Structure formats: C-alpha cells, structure tokens
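Quick review question:
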C-alpha cells in the first residue's frame, strides 16, 4: 500500500495527460489585485479563502504573505508586499516587482472580485474531489484481499 495511504500530490496531478486540474489564473490574479487595492476586500477574502483555493503556487505565496502581513498589522500594498516577499526570499519566485505592480494596478478587479472568489472556491472544491477520487482509486488498486480494510479507511 502507498506510504501513509497516499502518494498523490493533487496540486500536480491531472485527470488525464491532456487535461489540467480545475483552475482560473485570471480569477486568481484578479482576487489578489482586489485584495491589494481595497482593505475591505482584503479582510473579506482572508475570511472566505484558504491558501489551497489558489492553484498557482506563486499566487498562493502572495496570498499567504498578505495574510501574514495583515496578521502583523502591516500595510498591504504593492511596495510593502514586495519588501515583505523580498525579506522572505520569495519575491522573484512569485514573479518579482513587475507582477506585483501589475496586480496593484488592476483597478477593474474591484468590479468582479466576489464572483472571482466563488470561482476560486469552486475550482478548489473540484480539485479536492479529483484528489479524493484518485486516492480512492489508488487504495482500490493496492487493496488487500479483505476489502473491508479499504472501506474502513
């Protein structure tokens, strides 16, 4: 049986070789932009979203940095966020200052951010469902003769 029951990394897994996991990079960027532009949106998104709602690792890191900055009562703006990410050695990994500036200059993100949050949560739920199905499939392939053990886990 697989170690700890699961050797599947759902963030890297695809349903088939041609199909990517459910995701919407534009919606992710839009939500991050809205969070950077509006303190109210930032607070609501920190309540409504989890890091795994962001599929793209760099966007997840930006979200986590914003959350940490908010928790430390630090201002969350393009310059402060860039400085914070730089101090953690993550700035270039997330796309550098140019990507953060693009996010901070997208004022249209405030128009549809609520819908984009719903899209992120929907895609995240679908990824979890795909991951659960893959884990069940892996358990079934590695099942002992007594299937009661598989069903119980």
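Suggested answer, residue by residue:
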């Amino acid at each position: 049986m697989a170690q700890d029951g699961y050797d599947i990394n759902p963030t890297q897994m695809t349903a088939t070789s041609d199909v990517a996991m459910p995701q919407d990079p534009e919606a992710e960027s839009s939500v991050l932009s809205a969070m950077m532009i509006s303190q109210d949106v930032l607070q609501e998104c920190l309540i409504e979203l989890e890091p795994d709602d962001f599929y793209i690792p760099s966007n997840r890191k930006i979200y986590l940095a914003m959350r940490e900055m908010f928790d430390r009562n630090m201002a969350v703006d393009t310059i402060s966020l860039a400085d914070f990410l730089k101090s953690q050695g993550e700035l270039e990994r997330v796309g550098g200052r140019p990507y953060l500036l693009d996010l901070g200059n997208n004022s249209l993100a405030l128009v549809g951010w609520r819908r984009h949050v719903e899209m992120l949560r929907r895609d995240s739920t679908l990824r979890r469902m795909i991951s659960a199905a893959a884990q069940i499939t892996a358990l079934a392939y590695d099942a002992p003769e007594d299937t009661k053990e598989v069903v119980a886990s």
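Why it works: The helical segments are 25-37, 39-48, 57-71, 78-87, 96-104, 109-141, 147-152. The chain is about 65% helix and 0% strand.
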